[in-house]
Amino acid sequence: MPLEFEILATDGAARRGRLTTPHGVVETPAFAPVGTQGAVKGLGPLDLESLGAQLMLSNLYHLALRPGIDRLEALGGLHRFAGWERPILTDSGGYQVFSLARLRTIDDEGVTFRSHLDGDEVRFTPAWVARAQARLGVDLAMMLDECPPWPVSEEEAGEALDRTLAWAERGRAAWDGEGGFFGIVQGSVFSFLRQRAVDALAELEFDGYAIGGVSVGEPPALRRRVVEETAPLLPTDKPRYLMGVGRPEDILHAVRQGVDLFDCVLPTRNARHGQLLTAGGVLRIKNARFRDDDRPLDSDCPCPVCARLSRATLNHLYRIGEITAQVLGTVHNLRVYLDFMQDLRDATSSGTLARLERRDARREVGREAAGGSETVPQERPQEAAVSPPSQDPVPRQ
After folding, report:
1. How far lies 115's CA from each of 63, 118, 119, 142, 281, in Å?
2. Is 237 a catalytic site residue?
3. Run of H or E including 79
4. Which own/partner pairs from 225-229 qualify as long-range (CB within 8 Å, at least 24 positions apart)?
5. What are 7's strand-pairing partners?
6. Which of 91, 207, 250, 260 is catalytic?
């Protein structure tokens, strides 16, 4: 079945919507936990469902290398393989074009990689990428694009966009999946290139549109300017996806510009490092000051971790390296994010987004809770997908 997207309410440019896919409905604005290789680190599909996740993101590059598209298709597709019955969004591998500078060669027909696992040659073309995602049975698939790094010259960004738009035509023509196929708007920080990308992609009538090529090193003010200028240009009747941006304050900003879908590694990656979100900011739970703290992480949080465990318990589990600590932290952080998205949906429906924006930034990832002494590392959305064969692979979560 094709995608169906309905706008239920608006608050300025913000949209409260309903996206119907082959594997269920996604209420928007929505956040997709990142499960690069078919699983969110530390959580099974039942855990994700119990937390209220509507959508999971996986990465075609990693899945193509291991376990392989043929094997996944033979085993019933990605949903069955992952045990996840709700919608799945897949990255096309475009970010790997950006991140694999030492291991890839780009030409007008596609991109050739050296696998970070064994060095074998891997070839991605726009048509192959579209068909591979269709074979996986995913609900939201991304076209192959070239994501230029920052800083980048106007000339280089223009050349990358020319190639991306040529790939868009080939990928769109090859798509034969049951879900939706998204075009990706590139153009770096150059407004006229972004406008050209939107115009060309809209003519191809994609099922949705993504803003790509942001949070690749450019200053935050430029990133926000790109979102502010690009989102209003996108077709109003199709879902809009901001790729890899996930700080809550940036999500809120993008929602105010009319963006519907988000993903980011932040809640899961930070949880594995003991950086846990609370109403007062971020708790670095491994700090010694929490050893005797009998309070929950956040007394206002309804998650099972806050309901049953103390800061002292979590401090102990993290400090001794108990794997359960990372699982519990991931449960908590994802619940905070998913509740935040519900807040955004409710505020859009009631016309109170401005009030939500004025409210204390209770989930601000970059702010340490009272008593903290360190700053939280900056996010790397669409986190480096691979490393050279001689190093450990670094997945997108």
Report:
1. 12, 6, 5, 21, 39
2. no
3. helix 78-82
4. 225/189, 226/189, 226/194, 227/253, 227/254, 227/257, 227/259, 228/257, 229/191, 229/194
5. 17
6. 91
- What stretch of H or E contains 17? strand 14-21
Strand segments, DSSP code E, in 24-177 are: 24-28, 30-32, 56-59, 88-91, 104-107, 110-114, 121-124, 140-142
Q: How far apart are CA 167 and CA 3, in angstroms?
A: 22
Per-residue confidence in pLDDT tens, the chain, 397 aa:
679 999 999 999 999 999 999 999 999 999 999 999 999 999 999 999 999 999 999 999 999 999 999 999 999 999 999 999 999 999 998 777 677 778 788 999 999 988 888 888 999 999 999 999 999 999 999 999 999 889 999 999 999 999 999 999 999 999 999 999 999 999 999 999 999 999 999 999 999 999 999 988 899 999 999 999 999 999 999 999 999 999 999 999 999 999 999 999 999 999 999 999 998 889 999 999 999 999 999 999 999 999 999 999 999 999 999 999 999 999 999 999 999 999 999 999 999 999 998 875 544 555 666 544 333 333 333 333 343 333 333 333 4
What amino acid occupies position 162? D
Extract the tokens encoding 287: 């700090």
d(CA 122, CA 65): 8
Phi then psi for residue 110, to 5 deg, are 160, -155
Residue 79 near residue 112 (C-beta atoms within 8 A) = no
What's at 377, amino acid-wise?
Answer: P
Residue type, 207: D
Residues in contact with 322: Cβ distance below 8 Å, sequence separation at least 6, in sequence order: none
For strand 275-278 and strand 180-185, is the pairing parallel, antiparallel, or unpaired?
unpaired
Exactly one of 11, 139, 250, 263 is catalytic; name it.
263
The verdict on whether 263 is a catalytic residue reads yes
